[in-house]
Structures are given as structure tokens and as C-alpha cells.
Amino acid sequence: MTMSHDKFNNFYKIIKEWMMEKEGINFQKSSNHEISRAFTNFCLNEVFKISLDLDEDQIEFGICDGPNDKGVDFIYQDGRTFHIFQFKYTSQGYKRDSLAGFFDLHKMIFNKQNMDLASEKVRDLLDDISVDDRIIFYFVSNGESTSDTANYFEAEKKQAQIDTKGKDFDWLLYDGRALLEEHSANVHDDDSDVSVKIPIESIKGRKGLAYLDLSEVMGDEEGELTALCIVDGNAIRDIYRSKNNKRRLFNHNIRSYLGANPVNRKMKSTILTEPENFYFFNNGVSALCSSFEVEDDRFLVCSDFQIINGAQTVSEIGKLRGESAENLSKVRVLLKVTRNKQKTVREKIIRFNNSQTVIKTSDFRSNDPIQIHLESKFKDDRLFYKSPQGIKNIVYRRKRGNYKTSRQDAALDIQELSKVLYAYHYDPCQAITYPKMLFEIEGDRPLYFQLFGNKGVEAHAFDEGRFNQTAALVIFWLYIKDRMKLRAKKKNDDKPIENLVFQTKWHFLWAFGRVIEMKYPDEEDQRKIFKRVKKGDVICFDHDNDESLVKDWFDNIFDMTAEILALRSRDQSRAFNFRNWLRTESELEDFKIKLNYSLRFFKDIL
Length: 606
Prior knowledge:
Helix content: 40-55%
Number of helices: 26
Radius of gyration: 26 Å
Shape: globular
Structural class: alpha/beta
Strand content: 5-15%
Number of domains: 3
Number of strands: 15
Largest sheet: 5 strands, mixed
């Protein structure tokens, strides 16, 4: 599929504008390292955050570009899979020499002599790596590949595969056009119903349709009715392209549409080179509806049609143009449609239809009544936050996927909100180490219902006091993140301990909670504080002239954290590893002692 030159140039402008707005880049004055870091942040936050399922902490902890980075800019470990990135920003198309060293990275990371010379951050992130792991190397550039550079990359990749035969290593190239494909469409539509009329394939050589109604076998009139049919690629494309459908097709798909990725590119390749085999390589599409029937012995007509599995298949086929689209008449797709009227059964159908794919546990909770309530409540109450860039609207996004963004929005998703609630009420360590556990709904301690329920029991809504508290914690969290960024701009590389403090944001939120609990033990006083914070009466930014009382709290906790880390690093009786320190709950004891001792130094915000 070809891509217009104008579309690519527009994406190039989007990258530059993001770097200027979000990272403060001045392309005439900023250093090459500052520009490179800003490009890295764009790629991670706007592209790979979606396709690799990254959260903010994983991005922050994984960035390692700098002195002695050995050509490694970002590392993400997912189980026994390592994703290792090299980013290159260019004002023109990248050339062969930009790839120098990229295909030697696998040699470097398993060479002890080289690794001994690498930065502490790189060594720390690769401390657990093994030649038996799956390792994916990414070369990412905003520049456009020429046929020469693309061919060179493929030749070097083949040689690297020969050199590492028997190992599960891979090398991926993302030039500017591939980045554009990966970049989300940033569209989020409403929840209107979708009705479709789908032509069913005829059985070759005899009368009949490739359609099987399993209602009498699998369901009943009051419950679930199921039908299987085979449709061609053009039918799938037409469903997607209907101007009244678009992304509303995927409202019940727990992940929404997560953007293009290597799997999608394989779909395109199959359609282009062997469309007749697409049916055998693809799992098909599953959908729910409120009713279905066969019309005119030719069409399957469905009301309230929602795709719950196969969003990538439908989206990729729907977006095809040119030569690949011409092959759609040869493509066949299995479509399973289930009529469902029972909510509890519907949730299980959605969950189990997606369980074979790598997804976040939080996705399974995104359609819960409490999440829908919170999304609506944040919107209806028109909450705002006085940030360093001005007043921003607080937006809660219960689903991952593509949303329309605004410079005036301060957005957080379901996973970030769960971590905010857990870090404040309990501890920061699990919020960092095991965020998936926050969405457990079974077992002795279903954490999800502790955070979003009522005393451990499922809830459909928060009362006004509970929501005021939640909104206040979100505002505290946004403040801590922004205050940390402002202070980090003045960081001194000669103070390594102080620089570690910039990675302890969740500990700050936890400390805020302990100060409020100890300083204001009366619950009525706490409710007053939360209400004032929600209204915007407590937190504000005026850059260096900030008179906010909360800034006093922040500065006290910053100094306290730096002191604790300094003492821990000098304690020869216990080995000190900062990543382990962040993740160990017992390390909070020193915090509790200091907070209790220093409580009188925290100004009254009531």
C-alpha cells in the first residue's frame, strides 16, 4: 500500500511540533542530544506505548541514552522478551552509516568486556538478559528509507540471522513511513449502535451459502444464538469503511484498536502475496449483536453489531488501498456472530474471546459500570488542574486505543488511575512492580474491588465524597509529576543520589497520603482537604514564584527521599540496588519514621 507524500510530510511536522511543545525543543538552539532525546520520547509515548503496551513508568525506567550507552537508547523487558531500541532523528533521509553498530548490538550485550564499560543504567537493565531469551532490536528513524538503505538493512539482517542461528533474535526497521503506519489515528467515537448487512459467500458447485446457524445446537431463544459464516475481504472492508460505523464497531472490544504493528504488516503481506491462504492464517472475526437474520437468502443482517475480537483484521482490511485491495475478492474470513442479551455472559464472551492475545489485565475491566461512571463523572464535573503550562482539563480514559488529544487536556488512563489509588492508600511498591495485580477480582484479596469497589465489594458508582477524594488524588499526582519535571530540568549530574529521586514519584504520592492521615486524623478534615483540592483552591503553579503550600510538602519529601537514599547507598551491611529499593515495601519503614518525626515541618493546607 502506497502512502501519499503529503501525508508523510504532515506526520513529519507532527513529530516536530510534538517535540517543540512537549519537550521544549528549539531546532536552532537545542543540542543534538536534546533533539534525539525528544524524538525518543515522541516514539515511546505516541507510538510504541500503544503497540508494546508500555506505561509511563516503564518508559521512564527504560530510557538509557547518554554517555556510554553503547548505542542503546531504550530497553523494555517483558517476561523473557527484551525489546532493545536505537533511535535516530534526522532532518533528511537516513543513510547507511546511520546503521553503523546497530547490527553489532547483540555482540556487545553478551561481551563482558564491553558491558563493563557501559553505563550503569544499561548494565542494570540488561543484568538479567540471556542468549536463550527472545531479543528484538529496533532501529527507529523519522527519515525515509531509500531502496539502497532498505536493501542494506535486509542484507545485514540476513547475515545477523546466520550469525545467531538457533537464537530467537530479530531486527526491525522503523523508518518515518513505518512510524506513520504505527502511529495511532487518535480517533474516539461515540457508543452509537451499528447495524450491518453482510453478503455471505455462496458454496461453490452447488446451491447454498457458507453459513451455519448453530442456534438450535448452541443457544435458546432467551439467551445466546450463534451463527458461523464465511465472507470475502470486500465485505469486511465495506463494514469498516461505512461512514456511520468507523470505530464504533469496536466499542465492546476491550482494547479498542491498538494501532498498526508487525502482525498487521504480515496480514498485508499475506493479502498481497497469497490471499487465498488468508483464511488459514487468520483466526477470523467474532462479533456480538442484539439480533441477526438471513435476508434474501444472501445477506446476514445484524443489529447493534460490535466486534469483540478481530479488530486488527477488520481495520487492516478496511484501510487497504491499491494492489493489496485488488486481492480482497480472493480473501476469505471466518465470521462468528453471537446474539446476546445477558450482560454477565457478554462480559465472559468478551474476556475469553480476547484471552489468546497478549493484552493488559486492565483491559478486561474497562467496560465495568464503575469505569463508565468515572469516565462520565470526570467529564461532567469539568475538573481542571492548574499546570505549569496553564489550566488543563482532567480527562479520564477507561479504554486504551485511539483518542482525540488536546493541548488543554491532562489525561490519565485506567491503569494510571489504579496506580494512583493504590500508591496513595497502600504502598508505591506494588504499583510499580505488579500493576496487573491491581485488576484482580478473585482470591482472598481482590485488589480491584479495594480500589474501585465499596469495602472490597463491586460498586457501580462512587458517592460524592469518594469521588472528591479520587479527583484530589489525581490532582496531587499531576502536580507531583509536573513539579518533578521542573526540578529535573535543574538537575546536577554531580549529585547522582538526588537524580535518583526523580524516579520516585509514586513514593511521593504515598508520602502525601501518610502526611494527610497523620496530620489530619479526623476524616471530616480529610474530606474538606479533598474538596478544596478538587475545586482548585490548594494547588497552583507560578513557576519559580509558586506560593502553593503543597510545594512546601513536595520540597520536604524531596529532601527526605534524597537523605534516605544517601544513607541506604552508604550502608555497607546491605547491598543497595535502586530498582530493588523502589520495589521493596520494607524499605518504606525509614520513610515512615522520618515522616512522623518531620510532621511538624509540613505546613497546614486546611
